[in-house]
From TrEMBL:
GO terms for molecular function: ATP binding. Belongs to the ABC transporter superfamily. SMART domains: AAA. This is ABC transporter ATP-binding protein. The lineage of its organism: Bacteria, Pseudomonadati, Pseudomonadota, Alphaproteobacteria, Hyphomicrobiales. InterPro entries: AAA+_ATPase (IPR003593), ABC_SmlMolc_Importer (IPR050093), ABC_transporter-like_ATP-bd (IPR003439), ABC_transporter-like_CS (IPR017871), Mo/tungstate-bd_C_term_dom (IPR008995), NA-bd_OB-fold (IPR012340), P-loop_NTPase (IPR027417), Transp-assoc_OB_typ2 (IPR013611). PANTHER family: SPERMIDINE/PUTRESCINE IMPORT ATP-BINDING PROTEIN POTA, SPERMIDINE_PUTRESCINE IMPORT ATP-BINDING PROTEIN POTA. Residues 4-241 form the ABC transporter domain. Gene3D superfamilies: 2.40.50.100, Nucleic acid-binding proteins (2.40.50.140), P-loop containing nucleotide triphosphate hydrolases (3.40.50.300). It comes from the Bacteria. Keywords: ATP-binding, Nucleotide-binding, Transport. Pfam families: ABC_tran, TOBE_2.
Amino acid sequence: MAGIRIKGLSKSYAANAEMAAVSGLDLDIKDNQFVTLLGPSGCGKTTTLRLIAGYLTPDKGTIEVGSRVISSAEGVAPPDKRGMGMVFQNYAVWPHKTVYENVVFGLKLRKIEKAECRRRVEATLDLVNLNGLESRFPGELSGGQQQRVALARSLVVEPEILLLDEPLSNLDAKLRERMRVELKQLQRRTGITFVYVTHDQAEALALSDQIAVMHGGRLQQYGTPDEVYRRPTNKTVADFMGIVNFVPAAAKRLASGALIANVAGVDIDVSVPAGVADGDPLDVAVRPENVDLARSSDGRPGLTGTVTEETFLGNIVEYWVELASGPAIRVQAHPTERFNVGETVHAQIRAGECSAFPRTEPTKQ
C-alpha cells in the first residue's frame, strides 16, 4: 500500500493567482489511513482530489506516492498509471451492463485471464456484500447497492489508494449512516488508503482517521476528528465543525500572570492564544453541549439568562438562552432536563471544552 505526500500544491482556473482553487497545500497522508478533505463548496477539496487522481495538472508543487513523483507542473502520470481507484458522486455505473460486467470491466482492460477475473470479481462482490447479485442490472438495485457496485469496480483492480468524491450524497439519511459504517469497515479490511471528499461534518467525524479542513483553497487544520472538533486552530474551523456559539469576551490577566477570558464579568478559564494582551477582545467558541443549565447557581460562577426558545429533538432538547449580559446562545440538554420558555436559568460553561480566538471581526449572532 502507499501514502501520499503533497508539497506546495497550487491550482488556479483563472489568470489571477489570487483566485486559486488550491493554494500552497502541504499534506502528508499516511499509508492505510482514512483521510477526509472537508470544507464548504468552493473550498478546493474536489480540485485537490482531482489533482491527486491525475485529472488536473498543478500550477505549482508536487504529489508523491511512496518514492514516486506522480504530479508536478512539469508533468502528470496518467490516471491509469497512478495505482488509484476513483468512486464518483453519481456512481457512474453502466446501466446496460450487469453487476458482474460493470465490475469486471477494469480487469478486462488489463487483459487479466478469464478465470482470474471471475475469482477477483467474486471476492470483491463478497467484500462489498453484493454476492448473488452478479446478473442484475443497476436499474434493479437500490441506491446503496449501486454505490457498492461503484466501490467494487474500483477495488477489483487492487488499487493502492481509493479516492471517493462525495459518494454518499445521493443516498437518504438512514442509508448514508449505514454506508458510513460499511465504508469504514471496508477500509480496515482492505488496508487501502482512502481519500474522501465531503462537505458533511458528521460524515467526516464518523469516518476519518484524519480530517483536512479546507477553506478558500487553503488548509486550515489537519488532525484527528477529536482535534478538529474540540481543539480548532482558528474561528473558521470552529465555525464549520458543527454548531458553535461565539461569545464576546475580553482577555484578563490573573495575578499568576496567566491569561483567561472574561465573559460579562464572569471568568472563564479557557486557554488564550499567543499574542493576546490583557484587555484585548476575544471570541470564546462554546459548543451547545458544553453548557450546563440549572435553575439556581448553587454558588457556582456562571451566566444568568432567559430561555426564549425550546426545540425537542428526541435524544436532546435544544434551547436558546438570552444572556442577561451578552448574546443569545444555543444550548443542548438531555431530554429529562426540561426548562420552560420564559424561565430564568443559570448557564455554566465548561471552560476546558472551549476555545478562545482574537476578535478580528464582529461576532456572529
